[in-house]
Hints:
The chain has 440 residues and is of the alpha+beta class. 35% of the residues lie in helices and 34% in strands. The protein is built from 6 helices and 19 strands.
Amino acid sequence: MLQDKNRLIGFILLGVLFVAYIWVSNKANYERIEEQRVQDSLTQVQALMEDSIKQINNPIPDTNLDSTQTAVNPGQVDSLKDLKLVLEYGDFAIAASGSEETTTLETDLVQYTFTNKGGRLNKIWLKEYKKINWDEEKNKVESDLLLFEDEKNDFTYHLPVKNVKNLVSTSDLYFKLVENNGQKVVFRAFAGPNQYFEQKYEIKDEYILDYDIQFVNLDNTIDKSKNNFSLEWTNYLDKIERAHSYARNFTTIYYKESEDSPTYCSCRSDDEVTEEKGIDWVSHSNQFFNTSIIADNDFSAMTSETKMLETEDDDLKKLHSSLSIPIQESFGMTIYSGPNEFSRLRTFNNGLDDIIPYGRSIFGTINRWVIRPLFNFFSSFISNKGIVIILVILLVKTILFPLTYKMLYSQSKMSALKPQIEAIKKKLGDDQQAVQVETM
């Protein structure tokens, strides 16, 4: 009797386990089918959107319509264009259309021009300097010295945006100018109410801009799993001086790694460098002027490339730097764009003055701390640089004359003693031969 009862309980338990197994299996299978159905639906919607976008970009004329008819409802076209913007820019789709406008900041020495297309600098006018070139008749022609103005230049951030296949380039976005008080401009690319990517420029000193970028309430927009985003900076350096080939040899990219000395790309050939360590600053420099970006806290990594251009080209070189920036709420930088003046660059106290090619070792030290001060001293009251150079050379030769005199005097004495030394050597040689004969 007890045995039959136990057997019945066993059958009941097996039945319960069997029913539970069937239920779990069916549920898992249902979830898998539902997931596949949703995925298929999303794929169909994506394909439909892409087909619609293709129809917008490449409309097919309808020969059955007369001139008073339209093939597509204008409202539908706008909707499809909006869908295209959403696919390409995600939440930043609302900033992907607009019209370009410029605004300026200005001091006695420099004028900065900004564009809302990308929220970036697109021209810097150095008021105290002139660009010098030749016309067809070989006459000297002076014009305003402009940096950053080349249409081929690029200064754009590539942002990892959620639900977007490719990176979003800020150069495609129209930023809203939300502040301009004469000393500071603030641009914002909106992704929603009180959600934006901000770029702020503020005049700090002569040729110096404080530059800060900020992500505001974009946690649901920016894909932080990528850890970093990039700043792509392309600069076509113009022919500013008459001696183009000479200036080309001093045009390159300088940079400084953290805990290391400044270095540079090749000046005389194409070159490319990649650094995975922290980078303090990067400078696109030619012979007498440079534009440098200095990070408050290091760039994560850098790839820089210099490309030589043909002699007949309008520009000296193409310089490109790709700077990796950690994804965080804000990132501060400083932009210097001005002359390669030792005293100005040295105030940064970060080795930026090393972009001036004074030379290496003891000669570089002499040029920095002896020749340069002398040159500046004479230049303070003599405007002609040629005369200044002659005076510096004469002064240096005068200072070195005692050492030069001693060296020349020693050489003269050695020349006078040379015949006697040769005679002594000959006599010693003859005596040595005589001794050898006697020993034999």
